């Protein structure tokens, strides 16, 4: 498969990706972001994590692309003051207020991409007809479904909801998948 953008969200042209492939994509992107934030000699903020900047290679191996807005900083300089960069709808709220940015800005954007992958919808598409469009907020919708209504299934992509395994949601995957070398650990101090 040649590289292409991750049209895993609401695409009518591409085949629907199953949960295992989506999991592989999410895990790969998380590892890439962790590497940018913790594995490089310099601290790299991508500043524009979104589905269009995730390329899928052979066997759906994800590659984070488009570093045009990225910032390169010294490890000891973990906060950065910068003009607002990124794509509306994916930028962390703190950044839009011109607060200093940290790696949390990329983690926030990744969280939105993750939610899009799980739900099969873009974050700017209104999914609740009971809410007026000017009040629509994708994260609030997902939060309410999961934590207020306690119904994870409501946020899942309806096209493959029947394949959902709640054991995976509640962390009961094969323990061999989780090891001490798991690069998904993101230090919450920055």
Automatic annotation (TrEMBL):
<dbReference type="InterPro" id="IPR011009">
    <property type="entry name" value="Kinase-like_dom_sf"/>
</dbReference>
<protein>
    <submittedName>
        <fullName>Protein kinase superfamily protein</fullName>
    </submittedName>
</protein>
<feature type="domain" description="Protein kinase">
    <location>
        <begin position="1"/>
        <end position="190"/>
    </location>
</feature>
<dbReference type="InterPro" id="IPR000719">
    <property type="entry name" value="Prot_kinase_dom"/>
</dbReference>
<feature type="region of interest" description="Disordered">
    <location>
        <begin position="171"/>
        <end position="190"/>
    </location>
</feature>
<dbReference type="GO" id="GO:0016020">
    <property type="term" value="C:membrane"/>
</dbReference>
<keyword id="KW-1133">Transmembrane helix</keyword>
<dbReference type="Pfam" id="PF00069">
    <property type="entry name" value="Pkinase"/>
</dbReference>
<dbReference type="InterPro" id="IPR008271">
    <property type="entry name" value="Ser/Thr_kinase_AS"/>
</dbReference>
<keyword id="KW-0418">Kinase</keyword>
<keyword id="KW-0812">Transmembrane</keyword>
<keyword id="KW-0732">Signal</keyword>
<dbReference type="GO" id="GO:0016301">
    <property type="term" value="F:kinase activity"/>
</dbReference>
<keyword id="KW-0808">Transferase</keyword>
<keyword id="KW-0472">Membrane</keyword>
